[in-house]
Amino acid sequence: MSRDDDFQSILENGISFGRGGDRRDSAEGKVKTKAKKKQYVTGAHGSGSARQMAKYREQRANRKHR
After folding, report:
1. pTM greater than 0.70
2. Are 43 and 51 in contact (CB under 8 A)?
3. Is residue 8 within 8 Å of 14, Cβ to Cβ?
4. 16: helix, strand or coil
5. Chain-centre distance of CA 18, in angstroms?
6. Residue 63 gets which letter from DSSP?
7. What is the DSSP track for 24-46?
8. What contacts 38, CB < 8 A, 6 or more positions away?
9. Has residue 1 got a pLDDT over 60?
10. Over the stretch 12-61, which tens digit does the pLDDT of each residue have?
């Protein structure tokens, strides 16, 4: 197709701005982290560092706010 044919085709049919490519599952290939799980966030699963982080998070939540 020449440039004029492309231009003519666009004039007659318009341009389609549809979804391009195939869509994949959003969870595919992702690594699930413990950081988003409730036990880890609250420090209930037994890790010392998680307990300490939960303690700091609780202290930050209990601070006075303006």
Report:
1. no
2. yes
3. no
4. coil
5. 23
6. S
7. --TTTTPPP-GGGSHHHHHTTTS
8. 44
9. no
10. 888 888 777 666 666 666 666 655 667 766 777 777 887 888 889 889 98
